[in-house]
Amino acid sequence: MAVLVVGGAGYIGSHAAHVLRRKGYDVIIYDNLCTGHKELAEGFELIVGDIADTAKIAKVLTRCDSVMHFAAHAYVGESVQNPKKYFHNNVTAALTLLDTVMESRVRKFIFSSTCAVYGNPVKVPITESNPRQPVNPYGATKLAFENALEAYGRAYALRFVSFRYFNAAGADESGKIGESHDPETHLIPLIFQAAQGKRAALDIFGDDYPTADGTCIRDYIHVTDLAEAHVAGLEYLAKGESAAMNLGTGEGCSVKDVVAAVERISGSKVPTHIAERRMGDPPELVADPSLAEKLLKWKAKRSLDEIISTAWKWAQKRTS
Ligand code: UDP
After folding, report:
1. What is the CB < 6 Å shell around ligand 1?
2. In angstroms, what is the span from residue 203 Cα to ligand 1's centroid?
3. Which of 82, 172, 211, 262 has the most CB atoms at less than 10 Å from its CB?
4. Structure confidence by residue, pLDDT tens digits, 126-160
């Protein structure tokens, strides 16, 4: 029986598919390719379809014993401008997927959630007991689905893991897959564009935050570490357990730390420009990852330097 990787042609889903295969799992990728890339699913069975296509999902579920759901819209700014798109896909269509799963024999479900469910944290590092009060529609849609999983888990014996990702970054060591969004809004790919002369400068969104160097602090976690947590999540589900947990490193890096690491690793100067704060950016988001470490016997192993060097290799390849 296979693991159905829904959204497996996207950034995080494709890395999960690769790690699953390396660990000996059979994988089927299901993706509507609206933001995913066919190339990222190369070498895998790819079924092109929408998560709301009940008949298509039901058919493939007969060959699966677990589902990982990565297929969601994930731009905070866009979710503010166009909440309808976010609620329709991340909640309504996702619930259709979940109900189709409930009509099958599959009872193991792993969900890509986000630290955005916490909104502005009460305390950093953030533990899972921090109140979940999202401050944007994107976070609200992820919280809605987390709530559905908890209720379905209690009522229908569904086993689930909700993984609250901090900042996923980096690329697979193979250099074959990596991050590519259109439009690109994420820090590391944008720093590379500045380093490669594809944009005049990186806009640093605010240097007057109450942090050591005035720029925002985030917890950057290597996408392969995230992918490995998903495999550990499957093993956890196999024991009959369910939980929601943070996936982060527990270490914070400022925007200026990341720029400095890119300059060191790429050997290129990164022109920067101090811009206005971006709306809705909390000064510091760092995970307390101890729950995942305890429950999954998993720990993020890769450093910021490995994040940058693997992502840089991928970025170079794409432009060569
Ligand atoms: N950031 C920045 N300039 C950019 C893009 C991002 O200064 O062009 C900052 C942003 O304010 C945040 C951090 O980099 O503090 C990470 O942003 P990203 O959009 O990559 O992820 P987020 O934390 O929003 O999920």
Report:
1. 167, 185-187, 190, 202-205, 216, 218, 255, 278, 281
2. 10
3. 262
4. 999 999 999 999 999 999 999 999 999 999 999 99
Domains 2-169+220-247 and 187-218+250-286+301-319 share a fold: no
In this structure, the residue with its CA closest to atom 12 of ligand 1 is 216
Whole-number pLDDT of residue 180:
86
**Known catalytic residues?**
138
- Ligand 1, atom 14: nearest CA belongs to which residue? 187
Per the structure block, which two tokens stand in for 143? 């919280």
pTM above 0.85, yes or no: yes
User: For 229-269, how does the pLDDT look when each residue is reduced to its tens digit (9 = 90+)?
Assistant: 999 999 999 999 999 999 999 999 999 999 999 999 999 99
Question: How far apart, in whole angstroms, are the C-alpha atoms of residue 109 and residue 161?
Answer: 7
Q: Of 283, 253, 71, nearest to 170 (Cα)? A: 253
* The domain made up of 2-169+220-247 is a member of CATH 3.40.50.720: yes
Q: What is the CATH number of domain 187-218+250-286+301-319?
A: 3.90.25.10
User: Any idea which residue has 């259109």 for tokens?
Assistant: 182
Question: What is the 243 CA–ligand 1 centroid distance (Å)?
Answer: 28
Q: How do the domains of the chain map onto residue ranges?
A: 2-169+220-247, 187-218+250-286+301-319
Atom index in ligand 1 nearest the CA of residue 202 equals 8
What is the full DSSP assignment across 261-320?
HHHHHH-----EEEEPPPTT--SEE-B--HHHHHHH-------HHHHHHHHHHHHHHHH-
Task: Take residue 259 and report the two structure tokens written for it.
Answer: 């720029």
